[in-house]
Design a protein that fits this description.
Elements: H1 2-11, E1 33-35, E2 52-57, E3 60-66, E4 85-87, E5 102-107, H2 121-145, E6 149-155, H3 161-168, E7 181-183, E8 192-196, H4 204-213, E9 219-223, H5 225-229, E10 251-253, H6 260-270, E11 280-281
Parallel strand pairs: 5-11, 6-7, 6-8, 8-9, 9-10
Antiparallel strand pairs: 1-4, 2-3, 3-5
Amino acid sequence: MLRIVLNALRTGVVTTRYPWEPSVPPDRFRGAPVFRAGSRLPPPSVCPTGAISERFDEQGRHVGLDLARCVFCGRCAEHPWQEAVTVGRDFELAARARDDLRIEVVADAPVAAAAPPASDSSADLSAVAVAEAEAGVKAEIRSVLGRSLHLRHLDAGSCNACDWELTALLNPVYDVRRLGIDFVASPRHADGVAITGPVTRNLETAVHRTFEAIPDPRLVIAVGACAASGGMVGEGYASAGGVDRVLPVDVYIPGCPPRPEAIIFGILVALGRLDARRALRTS
């Protein structure tokens, strides 16, 4: 016993200070790809999950990236596109809306050649309305849930990578309970559900029954690329695809798998304690 106490004193505090202090991922970490506008960007066929798309208009070729489908494999940043695509280190990617995980840039043309977007007062008003609605949602979440959250974790057909990252939240390094967040065994004791994996047909009923057992108001958090979009599995005879094909999703956390800090960020977004990612359009 004395040896354990002495070892604990020598080790000191190992718990991360995130989110109060920035977290620096290790060098080997792969975050969201960064597309450089005006450069030769890869075609959609390069991406194994179909996260890259393209369209054409008078400005030229537009290349889109769906972060919900991206598994951060880095294939789009390999030769001959390494000058046009950089594997980033951003992990704070959680969003409330699926469209906020889509990025689009104009490729194959100098950035300066693109005409500046005209001022659109209706778009400005729409952005203000969205911001006001989001503030109202945050206030309502705080009034109902306070600053704590109990989640029921549900594996809907994952490979267990995201499940291991969720388990890591309870270890001394991340200690998610310090933030008022905990995982419970029964959905009847939960405020929401964190779902991993694509929703397999065999577990579709279980997903519905778990959701219905959680008292109102309830949150649904899609953890990982498979839960956010179907990921590598996609939609087919054995899989319904992403969680939003079955349930209304409140927060999407992309990644394959998302690192623990990314999940913490997403849960705090669900609680209204941090701001979610917004849509990005670059021309």
